[in-house]
Amino acid sequence: MIPSIDVQVREIEHKGLQQVQELKVDDTAREDFLERVADVAWAYLDKRKDYTGSPSSGILRFIPLDKESIPYRFDIKIAGKTYGFEIHYNEVADFFAIDLYDGEELLISGERLVYGSPLFRTYIGKEFPAAAIIPADVAGQETDLIWANLMDTVFLFVVTKGELPDG
């Protein structure tokens, strides 16, 4: 006899449009951070349409996440286009994953968030964000993205070509 498995499906809450937020840092910390992520950001951004918008000095932009609400879906405008993000967490392996939507069309399912590596880095196409989204910490002290440090020291930073040193 095959044992029954009790599967509980939780409705994914849609939180609507969120805004990219700003983290105020001193200019030296900002420049150090951008230098650290420049190589991986350029590798991602060279495949994308040209979008060079950048915030003022001393500002790093990030996507706010509500860990306590996971799993949930939200819309966010990045580099002039609105995308749907659905965030999930794997408690056993302690990692986060994102599904990317263009409207209701699922573009990517289960993209794992990896510290220091741009999201959607293996995909090329105009439908993907024209900004690098990189899980990282400003101080460069972390090495992994886990439950304990997401939105504490590690954020999903949004970096455009206009912010980076020449690549």
Q: State the total count of DSSP E strands.
A: 9
Order of helices and strands: EEHEEEEEEE
Q: What proportion of the residues is helical, as a percent range? A: 10-25%
Mean pLDDT: 78
The N- and C-terminal alpha carbons lie at a distance of: 61 Å
Give the class from helix and strand content and strand pairing.
Answer: mainly beta
Q: What is the number of domains?
A: 1
Shape category: globular
How is the largest sheet built, in terms of strand order?
A: 1-4-5-6-7
Using only C-alpha atoms, the radius of gyration works out to 17 Å
Question: Sheet bearing the most strands, described?
Answer: 5 strands, mixed
* Beta-strand fraction estimate: 25-35%
Unreliable segments of 5+ consecutive residues: 1-10
**Tally of alpha and pi helices:** 1
Features:
four-stranded antiparallel sheet, 167 residues, five-stranded mixed sheet, 1 helix, disordered N terminus, mainly beta
Describe this structure in a few short sentences:
The chain is mostly beta strands. The protein has one helix at residues 27-45; strands at 13-18, 21-24, 59-63, 72-78, 81-90, 95-102, 105-112, 132-136, 155-159.
Walk me through the structure.
The protein is mainly beta and 167 residues long. It has one domain (15-163). Helix content is 11%, strand content 35%. The chain has one helix at 27-45; strands at 13-18, 21-24, 59-63, 72-78, 81-90, 95-102, 105-112, 132-136, 155-159. A hairpin with a 4-residue loop joins β5 and β6 (95-102). The model is unreliable at 1-10 (pLDDT under 50).
